[in-house]
């Protein structure tokens, strides 16, 4: 059951760039906005939920990892304001609907403290804190019910679902030098990417590698085979066989594979692994524009099979050129004085007429999210 | 196809790219670089460049007539008043989807629909893309419907994987020769490519 949930609405209050944002999201959602407009901070709200619900995480730890309440709170907010996060989830058949809401700030000693935690299922409230016990013993407000196995039974599905959220922003250098992120598991930057492939049961691994090879063949036609092998110290390595002037071709390890090849491999592996929401940070990096423009189609076809939710931050006009991207699938992040405003492209009334007149979504959305005064950067170095 | 004559092309989008490649191969050529793929306006701006290149080498430029009021011949003159000898400037009436519908047998089986509901005169359609989406809407295959038909609220004319489905169809099933019997503009495109190849080889 937890497997097939998706987020359908998100509300952020005083969360980093967002003073007050509420927006509907789809199975596939593209986040578009200038640098520092809060696309990553928006994705971080989902990672925060994941951290809350994951082993080794929890409320205190999740906030500490983010530098404390003060660092989390929106700059536009007053000092004592609460930070709030609320989400709505549903299954694809629309038969069950979950709501989760959390509000917090900090004590005088700067310890994070819950002000509200609420869970509802199909409109029925399963949890509403602070409850009587919390009022009797305020120390209880240092933990969410979500993270506690002994009290989260009525909404365990929600906990499981949150902990299945996966964030990915592959840095090819880290894939090549796994020593840099030794001991990290589920490293979003790809430090344990090869280890993860190695851990996958052989049959599944071979099937996925075959699919990746077929897909990669389009982007990198010289690549004939890929395989995983362990060196004598047990460290896994990826090898690719390239077509070559020598009749038998040449093998290259991950150290020699290009950034684009490694990133695309990581991306394709990630979309096939797991079933929870996948948060992708700029999947277009290092890829050829012709490959980038096919990414939305790849995601759509994978989602049809897996019903998995994918949230993608992007700066790429090539990616947004795809005619099949729904206007309700695009979130625009526009920074204002009082924090970033988030809206779907569908909410902008001029967009449909511009599209009808022959502009692509990229033609419309990129200028709308252009950093103000960006042309002044051209003067850099003058004085 | 080793030794085949390489033909470059310029097209409006990625489905047209697949169509152009198939036509070039069918005419005995080998597809070279495919330019454009960012809409019609780009092609209109750059047509002089493609025409220049076609002075010495065969080129295929493929555009949709869309809803331009004029017929194909004046449309061509407006775009390229002075065509180079090796330029195949071809106009799909009204969109490349008409050409795909013209091979109704393979399209019906690909989409999972009855052949009888595919329009008999695809070049007479005002909005062939919309017609294609409507055909997909009636598909027996859920995957086709989900990929090709836009969700309610999407505000777009096509579904999330419309283009990749059409490319899949063109590459694996579509038969241009058969389709040409029901789409004159396609027949003329094929004939033009053959003629240019023959002239260059001779």
Describe this structure in words.
- The complex is a heterodimer of chains A (383) and B (202).
- Chain A is an alpha/beta fold.
- Helices cover 31% and strands 26% of the residues of chain A.
- Chain A has helices spanning 39-53, 59-65, 68-72, 132-136, 156-163, 172-176, 193-199, 202-219, 259-272, 289-292, 295-306, 317-320, 350-356, 361-368; strands spanning 6-15, 18-24, 28-32, 83-90, 97-106, 112-121, 124-129, 166-168, 223-230, 236-242, 250-253, 278-281, 310-314, 330-336, 339-344.
- A 6-stranded antiparallel beta sheet of chain A has the order 2-1-4-5-6-7. A 6-stranded mixed beta sheet of chain A has the order 8-12-13-3-14-15, sandwiched between helices. A 3-stranded antiparallel beta sheet of chain A has the order 9-10-11.
- The radius of gyration of chain A is 22 Å and the shape is globular.
- Chain B is of the alpha/beta class and 202 residues long.
- Helix content of chain B is 50%, strand content 13%.
- Chain B has 10 helices and 4 strands.
- In chain B, strands 2-1-3-4 form a 4-stranded parallel beta sheet, with helices on both faces.
- The longest helix of chain B is centred in the last third of the chain and has 18 residues, at 184-201.
- Chain B is globular, with a radius of gyration of 17 Å.
- The chains are: A alpha/beta (383), B alpha/beta (202).
- The A-B interface holds A 28, 293-294, 296-298, 300-301, 304, 321-329, 345-346, 351-352, 355, 358, 360 and B 13-14, 38-41, 143, 146-147, 150-151, 153-164.
Q: What strand order characterises the main sheet of chain B?
A: 2-1-3-4
* Class based on secondary structure composition and strand pairing of chain B: alpha/beta
| CATH-defined fold name of the largest domain in chain B | Rossmann fold
CATH class label of the largest domain in chain B: Alpha Beta
Rg estimate of chain A, integer Å = 22 Å
Fraction of residues of chain A in helices?
Answer: 25-40%
N-to-C span of chain A:
61 Å
Mean pLDDT of chain B: 93
> Which strand order does the major sheet of chain A show?
2-1-4-5-6-7
Major sheet summary line of chain B: 4 strands, parallel
Give a count of the beta strands of chain A, DSSP E runs of length 2 or more: 15
The H/E string of chain B reads EHEHEHEHHHHHHH
Range of helix content of chain B: 40-55%
Q: Determine the strand fraction of chain B and express it as a percent band.
A: 5-15%
Shape of chain A: globular
Report the radius of gyration of chain B as a whole number of Å: 17 Å
Mean pLDDT across the residues of chain A is: 87
The geometry of chain B reads as: globular
